[in-house]
Design brief:
Blueprint lengths: L8 H64 L2 H17 L9 H45 L2 E2 L5 E2 L24 E5 L4 E6 L11 E8 L11 H20 L11 E6 L3 E7 L6 H6 L2 H4 L10 E2 L2 E2 L1 H21 L3 E3 L8 E3 L5 E3 L6 E3 L6 E2 L12 H6 L1 E2 L1 H17 L16 H11 L16 H14 L10 H12 L1
Antiparallel strand pairs: 1-2, 2-6, 3-4, 4-5, 5-7, 6-7, 8-9, 10-13, 11-12, 14-15
Helix pairs in contact: 1-2, 1-3, 7-9, 7-12, 9-11, 11-12
Length: about 500
């Protein structure tokens, strides 16, 4: 990851290292330059001395040969021999001019010095350009993701949906939600549906879902009971968790936080509106709860609920989103409240994991995180978390195994059906059915007999695998995603 402007420690360390290298290289280069010049001068002197001696020998011995020739030869021969030394001396190569060690010494020293200066200047330029590019990249990334704050305190995280801060100006009014329809209620408060302004003619309308969360602050009445005060503290922690997680992560199977609008008495969390509602309503065939204001839903959502291909697609999508939270994202994020009601379906029935109010980030060095109290939904909580208040990524895998069982059986843990059986809960009941081999008893009648029974049985086996009592016996989210992808393909 590129270094940020707020952490200058690394560039400063690099600069100090470069200065140290400069202090080491310059004396070494100068010492090397001096020794090289001295050695070169010595070699030059020895070569000139040898050349002088050789020339002197030739000049001293040659006349003796000519003197002997003059004593033995005739006058004509002597005249020819006397003329020979002149010819020989004329053709002899002239001695090489003496070298100039001072110029060579200076040129070599300049080359070494220029190399060192170029290295230092290039390194400093690289560090400075890296810092500048890091700042520009950070600003561009924040602009793309929309993480900027307006004067009113509104923070937009998804500018692709909320293109202008003025589109949320109605939330700054005291009666901003008075004319909006309530589409859901949860532990934190109500969820409203609103339409964004249409900017261009012919553009399709865009809808958002607004979750209202009460704030525990100075304006909160002092006559609250202890239970109400604890509830407000819980909501405050949940909104902080939502902003830390879905406000900064992006995945096609996660519902992103579009904006956060703080108010004196509450917080507004803005999300993209999902027309097909939650997986809980879609499985029950509750088209009224899943439909929008126009009363339309996807063709795969009918009175009998989702078809099996649509359910399998939802299972694969949730597994991919869970794999991103557990494997790809750092630090690892544990959802802690996976259930059909927290899985929303977009226009193409692509699942989106939502409601990260209970999510926790677990550093890589930790094997588990201990919670102060039990959180989650009964029937989807892993047994070790229920007993020890310690949760890991395998707790999410257990919850996902229960979701697979719900997709294949059409029964939820809270159904009255399990009050009439000897087993307590859907997990033990499913184990008994799968061990007995009576698979038809476990398959949802709404999807049975449509040619997908073999795939459904395989998914039920994966559900049993994910809901093992021992966490080490359960697969990882990546393993589950691979197994479900093979079944789908």
């Amino acid at each position: 990851m590129a270094s940020t402007p707020g952490a200058p420690g690394k560039p400063l360390l690099v600069l100090i290292s470069l200065v140290t290298l400069l202090l080491v290289f310059v004396p070494a280069a100068e010492g090397y330059d001096g020794r090289h010049a001295v050695a070169h001068s010595a070699v030059a002197r020895r070569s000139r001395l040898g050349m002088t001696r050789h020339v002197h020998q030739r000049r001293t011995h040659t006349p003796h040969r000519y003197i002997l020739a003059e004593k033995t030869n005739t006058t004509g021969a002597g005249s020819r021999n006397r003329s020979a030394p002149a010819t020989s001396s004329a053709t002899a190569p002239a001695p090489a001019p003496p070298a100039e060690p001072s110029k060579h010494h200076r040129s070599h020293k300049h080359r070494v010095r220029n190399w060192i200066i170029g290295f230092v200047v290039g390194s400093l330029a690289g560090v400075i350009s890296g810092l500048v590019l890091s700042v520009l990249f950070r600003l561009a990334l924040n602009c793309i993701r929309g993480r900027y704050r307006t004067r009113s305190g509104t923070v937009i995280f998804t500018p692709k949906l909320i293109r202008r801060a003025e589109h949320l100006a109605f939330l700054e009014k005291d009666d901003g939600l008075a004319s909006l329809a309530v589409i859901g209620r949860g532990g934190c408060g109500e969820v409203y549906k609103a339409q964004l302004p249409v900017e261009r003619e012919g553009e399709e309308p865009r809808f958002i879902a607004i979750k209202k969360i009460k704030k525990h602050g100075g304006d909160t009445p002092n006559n609250l009971s202890d239970e109400e005060s604890r509830q407000l503290d819980k909501w405050s922690r949940q909104i902080q968790s939502e902003i830390r997680t879905v406000g900064h992560i992006r995945h096609r199977n996660l519902l992103p936080l579009a904006a956060h609008v703080p108010r004196p008495d509450c917080h507004y969390l803005v999300y993209e509106y999902m027309k097909n509602g939650s997986l809980h309503h879609a499985l029950k065939g509750d088209t009224a709860a899943a439909a929008g204001d126009d009363g339309t839903t996807s063709s795969s959502v009918g009175a009998a609920g989702l078809s099996w291909p649509a359910r399998l697609r939802v299972a694969v999508g949730v597994a991919e989103g869970l794999e991103y939270l557990h494997v790809s994202h750092r630090p690892q994020i544990i959802h802690r409240d996976l259930k059909p009601a927290n899985i929303l379906l977009d226009d193409d029935l692509e699942p989106r994991i939502a409601d990260f109010g209970l999510a926790k980030a677990m550093p890589d060095a930790h094997t588990h995180v201990t919670a102060s109290n039990l959180a989650g939904t009964w029937g989807y909580i892993a047994p070790e978390y229920h007993q020890t208040l310690k949760f890991t990524a395998k707790c999410d895998v257990y919850s996902f195994g229960v979701i697979l069982a719900v997709l294949a059986t059409g029964k939820e843990p809270s159904d009255d059906f399990f009050k009439q059986t000897d087993e307590v809960g859907i997990v033990k009941w499913l184990r008994r059915v799968m061990q007995s081999g009576d698979h038809a008893e476990a398959i949802d009648p709404a999807i049975a007999g449509a040619g997908h029974d073999e795939q459904i049985v395989l998914v039920l086996r994966i559900a049993v695998f994910c809901t093992s009592d021992l966490p080490n016996d359960r697969p990882t989210a990546k393993d589950v995603r691979c197994m479900l992808s093979q079944i789908k393909n």
